[in-house]
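testing teh design pipeline on a random one, pls ignore if ur not involved
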């Protein structure tokens, strides 16, 4: 999977309840509809952000890449998109907030204010990811992956062709893609004593080459989980991994993947870890799908534990 070939897999552009459209609704308009009022004195004259109040509560809202984001001035943890805003205000689940906002979307304009564009080094993280990927080598197998119990037959499976490479200092590099151009947006590093994400790059999805066409798609937390599951359950399933710590961008990408899988009648299996975080990821992903999704769990904490017999 060369940097150019990373564009062959599509993660979809439209999800159940039209997640993209909901996220582009105005937080300002929604907040005003539930009782918040604007504070013109504290709102930026440049239009960079709008301040809203409700009693002692104060939030600042700005538009970033066509999506409103907010932050509570007194509680930094209370922040995010319009979906997060609704979840926090009404103690809703993700799916409940999505349903609520989808029903009100026709009455909420997409934009209320036009902030000045922020100067950002756009594309730098893609260049870094591309450079690291280009400097990595395609190999038939890797000592680290073999020591994790993943057989050479899985590493050479066409589904995973160039979906990982050997990096410097004995690490394995797993590429992440999103909908940008180029598609490569980040990379995961795994090795002896090494487990992390490329500094200065962004998480997207790691996918097998057949993830967009397989009749069965398995969603796991990490790339090692995907390879381990494929070793435990041989077949032709496609795989997608989000690298742990499911973020809003990854929820958006996975909702597109789920929608496209549903369109072609593919079976989707959620195979996140056997722990509370895995259960939460499964609940979040299940809420994104228009059709029922099967959940399976490893016997141990994750699929690599099962593969190595660490039950």
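output:
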């Amino acid at each position: 999977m060369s940097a150019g070939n990373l564009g062959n897999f599509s993660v979809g552009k439209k999800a159940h309840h039209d997640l993209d459209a909901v996220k582009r609704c105005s937080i300002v308009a929604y907040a005003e509809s539930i009782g918040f009022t604007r504070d013109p004195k504290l709102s930026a004259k440049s239009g960079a952000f709008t301040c809203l109040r409700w009693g002692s509560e104060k939030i600042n809202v700005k538009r970033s890449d066509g999506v409103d984001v907010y932050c509570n001035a007194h509680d930094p943890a209370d922040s995010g998109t319009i979906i997060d805003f609704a979840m926090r205000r009404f103690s809703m689940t993700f799916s409940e907030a999505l349903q609520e906002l989808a029903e009100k979307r026709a009455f909420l304009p997409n934009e209320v204010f036009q902030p000045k564009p922020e100067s950002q080094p756009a594309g730098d993280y893609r260049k870094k990811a591309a450079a690291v990927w280009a400097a990595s080598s395609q190999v038939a197998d890797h000592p680290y992956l073999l020591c994790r119990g993943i057989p050479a037959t899985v590493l050479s499976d066409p589904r995973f062709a160039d979906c990982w490479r050997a990096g410097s200092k004995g690490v394995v590099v797993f590429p992440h893609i999103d909908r940008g151009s180029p598609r490569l947006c980040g990379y995961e590093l795994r090795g002896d004593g090494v487990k992390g994400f490329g500094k200065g790059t962004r998480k997207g999805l790691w996918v097998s080459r057949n993830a967009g066409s397989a009749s069965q798609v398995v969603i796991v937390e990490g790339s090692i989980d995907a390879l381990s599951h494929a070793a435990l359950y041989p077949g032709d399933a496609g795989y997608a991994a989000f690298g742990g710590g499911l973020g809003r961008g990854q929820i958006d990408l996975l909702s597109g993947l789920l929608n496209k899988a549903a369109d072609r009648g593919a079976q989707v299996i959620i195979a996140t870890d056997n722990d509370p975080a895995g259960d939460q990821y499964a609940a979040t992903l299940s809420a994104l799908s228009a059709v029922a999704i099967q959940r399976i769990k490893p016997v141990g904490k994750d699929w690599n534990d099962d593969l190595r017999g660490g039950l």
